[in-house]
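S.,

As promised, the iron/sulfur cluster run. Input:
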Amino acid sequence: MEQHIQAGDFRMKIIPVEYLSKAKEELLRFCQTIDLSPSEKKTYIDDCMLELPELPFKAVSIIVIMAPMRMKTAVFHLGNQSVTDLFRAREISVDDYLNGLFADKGYHLMNARTLPQKMLAVCSGLGKYGKNNLVYEEDWGSFIQLETYISDVPCEPEFVWRGVVNMERCESCGVCMRLCPGQAILKDRFLLDMERCHGWLDVMGRLPESAPHTIAPCCVCQKNCPKNSKWRENADTIEFTGEETQLLTITHDMPDNPFALTADKMISLMRGWGYPESLVGKIMKLGIYPWTLKDLPVKLEHMLAHTS
Ligand code: B12
Ligand code: SF4
Ligand code: SF4
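Predicted complex:
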């Protein structure tokens, strides 16, 4: 069953920009309560935007916006083998939506991905934390696009900062903690252990050989969460023929920084590798990220080698 997202499928909050200092205060206070490793400290504090940067306009607000993502089951066939993986795909552009809503009316928007996005989403009331540390929107679960912008769009007059909230369901569940392959979700600490998260180790090329390998970085804590079941069960299936899978196992040169590749550049890269249009279309439908495209041949080979 094809799932389509409507143009109005967005949830948004416009937070007065002064709340950034409240977010900073809460984050620093929380970080002092636990022993962070140097790389956690760097990621959570040093690399996080906790102060306003220099801007060519007077910042008034922070816009937090969510849109649902759709699950796609990919099935790759080669000879008499097949492997399956689950992907999450963006189907609508949050940028286009916001530009239509605000930029076209003369407001300024600066996409600011290093803001503490989850805290802003939860404390503004858009979602709740799951025990897996991800933000859940009531209807859409955790498979969401979450974007944050600094802007001069006027704020909501009666904005309320409600603080961090955990989903009620987590109290009697614990599935993510039990199934996490890296034991990164801890019993006694809400914040997960970043160094054990396979999603992270995979992107950094440090996943242990013995760990379960998938094409999309690990999402076990989301795939198995009961709050995501409705999306998982309705995932569209995209089948890759033997010929297509064969093509995908061939390694090609990638730019030095694949993280910076746009969708258009990914498409022209794949065309340059001789992928037929149908294959390019299927890959893009999976919502594949550039780093996953880079690792696709190695990962497919690994999964095929471990499939009986
Ligand atoms: C660093 C980072 C990681 C790190 C660390 C994860 C982490 N601990 O947050 C690693 C590399 C492990 C990681 C992995 C993934 N990430 Co990441 N990551 C980020 C990033 C860049 C910063 C997050 C951060 O600074 N966290 C710091 C901590 C301190 O913040 P926090 O989690 O909000 O912490 C608060 C809570 O712990 C709360 N708290 C404390 N005690 C308690 C107690 C209770 C009861 C409650 C309710 C709350 C609570 O207070 C803390 C401080 O405010 C964000 C983007 C961004 N700019 O925010 C994406 C982001 C969080 N990642 C995202 C995703 C999708 C992933 C992966 C699925 C990637 C993948 N595998 O493909 C995995 C999922 C792993 C997981 N289970 O969280 C999405 C999450 C979307 C969502 N639905 O929430 C984000 C928002 C990026 C995006 N815009 O899409 N990620
Ligand atoms: S799997 Fe269970 S405990 Fe984990 S986030 Fe989902 S509902 Fe909460
Ligand atoms: S992404 Fe994988 S390793 Fe990381 S917390 Fe979730 S289940 Fe654990």
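Strands lie at 11-16, 61-78, 81-90, 109-111, 128-129, 135-136, 144-151, 236-240. The first helix runs from residue 19 to 32.

- D.
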